[in-house]
DNA sequence: TTGGCGTCCTGGAGGC
DNA sequence: TGCCTCCAGGACGCCA
């Protein structure tokens, strides 16, 4: 499930390949990809335009086109973008080689002027795409996408300000894209473990040291994801059709019952905000409990 | 204003 | 073996 590291991995791979290329034709095979906009309209808007560059905002991939338009894409749960030769039946490559299987989940094809093709496939069909005037992108995301966690703006002060007065669990806080953009279920679990913070702790109960730990936890988890080329626990493949390796480096996510790498306590799974949440009950202590423990220490 | 829940959507796992 | 049910989760709308 593509989160910030997966989308950024794809962006870094595609940007040098696509910049300057012209989209000869966009063919939308699944109208749900563009709804509520008519897919033919999107095809007309995008076909024939030159690609000026690729950007990322949160989990959105932004393809800047000439004519001051931007194609906005979201991969959601199972979306993949794959760059291949036109007509190539290959949809995946791994350490064992090519897997020549016709892609039954293909939703859209971009025919490029260099004979290659950018394919969007999506098993669960949650992915979406739409075109905006480039000048209107920030306005479209205003209020919907918060601070970029890998930017200099993501400070302890910012986290404290965003969390002030909120009683929602820290896990929900991290998943709220309108406050922190790009963190999803996987990296929220990993970040909270790194910060030694319990996922059910109220966001507003953080003090400065907790916010600093959370900042480092989030950034550390995202950087680990980037280093691993993303996590392939569902259908995620990068733009070259390769699996990421981050799933092998998970510290707590999907590790229920396994010993915590820090203290050895068995990892637990609970449901927070309707999402599977993995944490260590031994070293990720609730903030209120932590305060109580400190008070007892002072005695 | 905030937080929780349902919805969309389909593949895969597990049970019978 | 085949069928059925449940689960997974990102974004958004709705409701309390």
Brief write-up:
By secondary structure, the chain is an alpha+beta fold.
Can you offer a commentary on this structure?
The chain has 299 residues and is α+β, with helices and mostly antiparallel strands. The protein folds into 2 domains: 4-141, Alpha-Beta Barrel (N-terminal domain of MutM-like DNA repair proteins), CATH 3.20.190; 156-279, Helicase, Ruva Protein, domain 3 (Orthogonal Bundle). The protein has 8 helices and 12 strands. It has a 4-stranded antiparallel β-sheet with strand order 1-8-9-5. Strands 2-3-4-10 form a 4-stranded antiparallel β-sheet, with helices on one face. The protein is globular. 38% of the residues are buried. Mean pLDDT is 86; it is low at 93-98 and 289-294.
Helix content bin:
25-40%
The CATH top-level class label of the largest domain: Alpha Beta
Biggest β-sheet, characterized? 4 strands, antiparallel
- In total, the number of domains comes to 2
| Class from secondary-structure proportions | alpha+beta
In one word, what is the shape? Answer: globular
What Rg is obtained from the alpha carbons, in whole angstroms? 21 Å
Strand content: 15-25%
Mean pLDDT: 86
By CATH, the topology of the largest domain is: N-terminal domain of MutM-like DNA repair proteins
Task: Give the count of helical stretches.
Answer: 8
* Low-confidence runs: 93-98, 289-294
- What is the CATH architecture term of the largest domain? Alpha-Beta Barrel
Order of helical and strand elements: HEHEEEEEEEEEHHHHHEEH
Spatial strand order of the main sheet: 1-8-9-5
**What distance separates the N and C termini?**
47 Å
The fourth-level CATH homologous superfamily of the largest domain is MutM-like, N-terminal
**How many strand segments?**
12
